[in-house]
Amino acid sequence: MQTTQIFNCVTCPYPNPDASVRLFCFPYAGGSSLIFRPWLRSLPTTVEVCPIELPGRGLQMRLTPFSRLQPLISTLASALLPYLDKPFAFFGHSLGGLVCFELARQLRREHNLSPVHLFVSARCAPHIPSRKPAIHALPDTEFIEELRRLNGTPDSVLQNTELMELLIPILRADFAVLETYVYAQELPLECPITVFGGLQDKEVGLQELEGWRSHTIAAYNLQMFRGDHFFIQSEQLLLLQTLAQHLHALT
């Protein structure tokens, strides 16, 4: 059983105390808070962007990555509480989408708090079982081939033996979080949900994205972009323009 860790997961490279909304950004499997650094100058000045740094990477490199979702969610909820003194929104890509959804439910259960908007990117609706076989326990060679197929890790990284020795335990833990997740039914969220998807994404199809509609009693919106599972990189400019439009409406 994984024990709860105490860590400071919230980063805020450009503090904005006058912002009216905080946007917490949750990375994909193996990702760190650094993937959101280019966003900080592209979103409305009324929004304070707070990338989340999960254990095992960045400033949290010395901490053991979580391999199960519930301990991660419990720890995140405690860590975020001091930052929830003003309206807040969540954005999560792939693994991050599942994390921020379950975090929203945890905050509702335990603290009667809710994000003003949930942005989910490249993640199937939580009640839909994965169509893919689990990969987190594969031998290293096969595991790396699966990472190459997903197209989220540059070949230069995959071919760097020393770097992959550091990354593989983090990636295995992150995929274990996804692949051992079991959905539990609760009432739909009361905040709007906007879902982003990739038109060429072979991991998450349109029907799986549409499934998010049942998880809110508020507005639901689906927007598709060119690109595969990592359109967050290839279509970053357009994604940020779209996200900025939604965030403007919150402030």
Q: Would you give an account of this structure?
A:
This protein is of the alpha/beta class and 251 residues long. It has a single domain, classed as Alpha/Beta hydrolase fold, catalytic domain (Rossmann fold, 3-Layer(aba) Sandwich), CATH 3.40.50.1820. The chain is 34% helix and 14% strand. Helix 1 crosses helix 2. The chain starts with 20 loop residues before the first strand and ends with a helix. Residues 1-6 have low confidence and may be disordered.
SSE topology:
Blueprint: E1 21-26, E2 47-51, H1 69-80, E3 88-93, H2 95-111, E4 117-121, H3 140-150, H4 155-158, H5 161-179, E5 193-198, H6 206-210, E6 220-225, H7 231-234, H8 236-248
Helix pairs in contact: 1-2
Organism: Plectonema radiosum NIES-515
Domain Thioesterase: 22-249
InterPro entries: AB_hydrolase_fold, TEII, Thioesterase
Number of helices: 8
Which residues sit in consecutive blocks of at least 5 with pLDDT less than 50?
A: 1-6
* Biggest sheet details: 6 strands, parallel
Give the spatial strand order of the biggest sheet.
Answer: 2-1-3-4-5-6
Binned strand content? 5-15%
The name CATH uses for the topology is Rossmann fold
The overall strand count is: 6
- Whole-number mean pLDDT: 92
Helix-and-strand structural type: alpha/beta
CATH superfamily: Alpha/Beta hydrolase fold, catalytic domain
Family: Belongs to the thioesterase family.
Domain Thioesterase: 22-249
Protein name: Thioesterase II family protein
InterPro entries: AB_hydrolase_fold, TEII, Thioesterase
